[in-house]
Structure formats: structure tokens, C-alpha cells
Write a structure and sequence with these properties.
Blueprint (H helix, E strand, L loop, with lengths): L1 H15 L23 E8 L6 H11 L4 E5 L10 H7 L3 E6 L4 H4 L3 H15 L10 E2 L9 H6 L3 H11 L3 E2 L4 E2 L10 H12 L4 E7 L5 H16 L2 E3 L2 H8 L4
The structure holds zinc ion (ZN).
């Protein structure tokens, strides 16, 4: 175990040492390929749920014994599914923050507006889990999105990233994208193909998927996505576990 932790630590710093970002933050373009036999890790992440598609995803993850991370929302549209965050946490997955409203024009109007939205999200989740465990965040659109500047000015993402770290929280993007929530509504086969294409470049993969009511093809694709990463020799972990492993913790 100790050796594995050290190797993962090396891998982590090897992959991200060149990126001008803090070690606990990934950017879409940050990782590069390790050419030797260091352990490969994959974090499956699901954004914008919970929804009607969350339970089927949990069922597959349980059958496959694969942990995942859910960056959740608390919108009017998914109110009735919010209690599922308790189940998600109880089944050993990580629940993390995404946004209450997910409306760019609202949340990116100012840093205050953004934190108001996160406060609303935490309040909505409070009945179902311990808020102390909610320390990871994924910015809607990612940390390098440019749409936010239209509403909150060009420096808003920089400010939000700094403020997240000041709170002692962490943020994370992704480096592999299923493109499962795009307007073209890709089928399961295409989602798997998108992932295979992106993942080929990385020994540590943070995979962006979605569990909204529109992404039933993600559910369809999930068993083959898991199979493929397994065949390629990746270990599945939550975002939190990945960072604990890389820092040498248990
Ligand atoms: Zn989102």
C-alpha cells in the first residue's frame, strides 16, 4: 500500500508538475502521458444531477463495485431527487458541489452571486448529508469557461478559484469528456468513443459525464465505459480518494 501511494504521488506530480495551477486542481489541458508502468487512475464524475437517471447509474456502479463522484445541483427541476444524495454518499461515492441554479447569467454576475448560489445549494443538501464533507467544487462550465466574463468580467474565474482555496475547499475540472450532454445527444457508442479518444492521452483520467434526465444514453454507455477502463488497467477512485492517495494518506 505504501509503495502504491508513493507511486501515485510520483505519478501525480509528474503529470501535473508543469501546470501553473495548484496541485489539487486539474485543468482540461494539464495532463500529459506517462510512458512507463505507473498506476493508472480514473475518476468517473457525474454533473448536474441527481435526476431520474441517478438511480440506474448507482445500480451499475454497485454491481461493478466502482466508486464515483457526483457534482450535484439543486434546481426546481430536480427537487424530488435531492434525497438521493444521501444514498449516493451511503454507497461510498463522493458528493460534491456544482451549483444550485446552474444559470450562468445569475451565478456569474459577481463573486457574491456565485457564493449565494453555493450557499443555497448547501442549504438544499443539508437535510441529507454532513456539510463538512462538502469541500469539493466543480464550476459550471469549468474553471476556464469564458461565458462567465460576459456577466462578471474577465477576472471572475480567477477570483472564484482564489476564494475557493481561501475557504480551504478544492475545485477540479476534467481532462476526459464524454460529451454526453451536448445538443447532438450522442448515443452510448459515441459517448464511449469520445472517452476512449480523450483518455488515450492520460494515465490519470477525470471523466466528465452527466446524470440529468436527458442523459439516458450515459446510463446505457456506463457498463462499457467501466469495462474499457478496467481492460486498460485503470483503478477507479473518487476525486477525494485520488488526492488522498497522491498525498500519501491512507
Ligand atoms: Zn454542469
Amino acid at each position: 500500500m505504501a509503495i502504491l501511494a508513493v507511486l501515485i504521488h510520483l505519478l501525480y506530480h509528474r503529470e501535473f508538475a508543469d501546470a501553473a495551477i495548484p496541485n489539487d486542481c486539474f485543468a482540461a489541458t494539464a495532463a500529459s502521458t506517462g510512458e512507463n508502468a505507473l498506476p493508472k487512475m480514473v475518476c468517473l464524475t457525474f454533473d448536474d444531477g441527481p435526476s431520474t437517471n441517478t438511480q440506474p447509474i448507482l445500480k451499475i456502479l454497485a454491481e461493478e463495485k466502482v466508486p464515483a463522484t457526483f457534482f450535484v445541483c439543486a434546481q426546481d427541476i430536480n427537487q424530488e431527487y435531492l434525497p438521493l444524495v444521501r444514498t449516493i454518499a451511503q454507497q461510498g461515492h463522493q458528493v460534491a458541489m456544482h451549483s444550485a441554479s446552474h444559470r450562468y447569467a445569475k451565478i456569474y454576475q459577481s463573486t457574491d452571486a456565485f457564493w449565494q448560489d453555493i450557499k443555497a445549494l448547501r442549504q438544499a443538501l443539508e437535510p441529507y448529508l454532513s456539510l463538512e464533507d462538502l469541500t469539493w467544487l466543480r464550476f459550471p462550465g469549468g474553471s476556464t469557461n469564458t461565458v462567465s466574463s460576459k456577466y462578471g468580467g474577465s477576472g471572475i474565474m480567477q477570483s472564484l478559484k482564489a476564494q475557493t482555496e481561501e475557504k480551504g475547499w478544492h475545485w477540479i475540472d476534467w481532462n476526459v469528456c464524454g460529451e454526453d450532454a451536448t445538443a447532438s445527444h450522442p448515443n452510448a457508442e459515441k459517448i464511449l468513443h469520445n472517452i476512449q479518444e480523450d483518455a488515450a492521452e492520460h494515465t490519470t483520467c477525470v471523466v466528465l459525464l452527466h446524470d440529468t434526465k436527458a442523459t439516458d444514453q450515459t446510463v446505457e454507455a456506463l457498463p462499457s465505459i467501466i469495462d474499457w477502463f478496467r481492460q486498460e488497467g485503470y483503478t477507479f477512485c473518487t476525486v477525494e480518494q485520488m488526492v488522498q492517495l497522491q498525498s500519501g494518506g491512507e
